[in-house]
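Intended use. Records like the one below are meant for learning the mapping from a protein sequence to its folded structure. Do not use them to infer anything beyond what is encoded.
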Amino acid sequence: MEQEFLHVLAVDDSFVDRKVIERLLKVSSCKVTTVESAGRALQFLGLDEEKSPVEFDELKVNLIITDYSMPEMTGYDLLKRIKGSKKLREIPVVIMSSEDIQPQVNRCLEEGAEEYLVKPVKLSDVLRLRDFILKEKAPPYPQREHTSGKRKSRDESPASDSTSSDHLRPLRKRRKMAHH
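Structure written out for the chain above:
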């Protein structure tokens, strides 16, 4: 039952936004670590030196949610560093921003962001992300489900998935599935 609680690293230069996302995540039964910059996130993840995979394994971060617009290093730059790391690239990264600029959204999704959320982030956003990550953490789905090969039934089950997510960008994995 250790998968009940997700550990989320929340990165935002705004104190108020950090507190809002922290509260939403805690209400959603997530363990939260907050940092105020992409540089601090890299330190926390061990990417500033790339030397301590043992420490990172103990952290067990399941999700990174980061603001896009931050001084010194943007959330997009942080995303690129995480996706470029062998030890961290599998961790889902969610970008949040007050700007809904389509080229920016596309660039983040193409670089590997799992989701792009437009602020203010709502509880329904956080619950949807948590449920998605928990679903992804389940035992590998090809072994678990027997399908005819045409449909991915794991995406059909939660009824709440389509009701609370009209304002969200599609999850990257679903976007890929739609093209095949």
